[in-house]
TrEMBL record:
Stated name of the protein: diguanylate cyclase
Location of 4-aspartylphosphate modifications: 68
Pfam family, one: GGDEF
UniProt-listed Gene3D superfamilies: 3.30.70.270, 3.40.50.2300
Gene Ontology CC: one annotated term: plasma membrane
Organism: Rhodoferax lacus
Domain of life: Bacteria
Length: 312
């Protein structure tokens, strides 16, 4: 799996482990045939009915699914429909493998979002070649989807992703009446830093700061994004003010502890950040823009009152 938060260069170089294939068929003999085709080069997972396949896709999403059409219970078409309707599984390519050779069935399967339709009995070489082609396309499109949301300099999420996620998390928090914390932070006197040490050193410092920020996040759903030039945002879903405040202080401390020299700063002899925290309580009026404005005004207050501090 590609980690969304690794730097872009590493992403491009990364060699994936063995791709994961899910074979779904109600006949054990068919599963065995497929297993023989793919074991070795792939991690092969198996399901003997539609319900099991859907559950597996949720808990351990495969890179591609070979899906039988005729099965008792949920048939393959219904499984495909459900996978495509769910944002977390819609990107998994589905290949139907079926004894149906009727063009109407094939058309129906492709219209449901499957990438291919293979007739049983399968020819092992053909099915291997098709799977390889679809996996290559899948990995390329995964990478593109990820690059669209990553900041090229630092490898953390970009503003586009931040804007999308803060709205998503606000809606989720409203639905669940759960808290949501937002931290905005900005590097202090960074213009002076560039003027003194050069733009290249400035870029390096932003990379170091990003890496330090990431170490402060505790849960998989927490994220850091580059909000603007030398400004970052942290979204902390399901996090109360009391739980977010220590994180805000830790962000400030971790950046200071990087000890990147900044001789022309008026705050310290090293790079520091100013941090603004705002929390939406479980039950809240207003909208997501109010939360962003509040975090921003706390950040501004941290700037006004001396920088290198947290305001909340
Ligand atoms: P303050 O403490 O009030 O935030 O002062 P500041 O100098 O940090 O703020 P200001 O907005 O005046 O300047 C921000 C600087 O950040 C100017 C810009 O050159 C620098 N910056 C923004 N993005 C990048 C970047 O990608 N790389 C580098 N090296 N510098 C950047
Ligand atoms: Mg069947
Ligand atoms: Mg600044
Ligand atoms: Mg700024």
């Amino acid at each position: 799996m590609i980690d969304l938060q690794t730097p872009v260069a590493e992403l491009l170089d990364s060699t994936h482990g063995k791709p994961k294939l899910l074979v779904v068929d109600d006949q054990p003999i068919n599963i065995q045939v497929m297993y023989r085709c793919f074991a070795g080069d792939y991690q092969v997972f198996m399901a003997t009915n539609g319900e099991q396949a859907l559950a597996l896709c949720k808990t351990n999403p495969p890179d591609l699914i070979l899906l039988d059409v005729v099965m008792p219970g949920l048939d393959g078409f219904e499984v495909c429909k459900q996978l495509k309707a769910d944002q977390s599984t819609s990107h998994i390519p589905v290949i139907f493998v079926t004894s149906h050779t009727d063009p109407a069935q094939e058309t129906h399967g492709l219209n449901l979002g499957a990438v291919d339709f293979i007739a049983k009995p399968v020819n092992p070489d053909v099915v291997r070649a098709r799977v390889k082609t679809h996996l290559t396309l899948k990995f390329q499109s995964d990478l593109l989807r990820k690059l669209v949301f990553l900041d090229g300099l630092t490898g953390v999420f970009n503003r586009r992703y931040f804007d999308q996620q803060i709205s998503t998390e606000w809606s989720r928090a409203s639905r669940n009446q759960s808290p949501l914390s937002l931290i905005l932070l900005d590097v202090d006197y960074f213009k002076r830093f560039n003027d003194q040490y050069g733009h290249q050193a400035g870029d390096d410092a932003l990379r170091l700061v990003s890496a330090a920020l990431k170490t402060c996040l505790r849960r998989p759903a927490d994220l850091v994004a580059r909000y603007g030039g030398e400004e970052f945002g942290c979204i902390l879903p399901d996090t109360s003010y009391e739980d977010a405040l220590p994180i805000a202080h830790e962000l400030e401390r971790k950046v200071r502890e990087l000890a990147v020299p900044h001789a022309s700063s008026s705050v310290d002899t090293v790079i520091t950040i100013s941090v603004g925290l705002a929390t939406r309580p479980g039950v809240a009026d207003g909208d997501v823009n109010a939360l962003v404005s509040l975090a921003d005004s706390q950040l501004y207050k941290a700037k006004r009152t001396g920088r290198g501090r947290v305001c909340s």
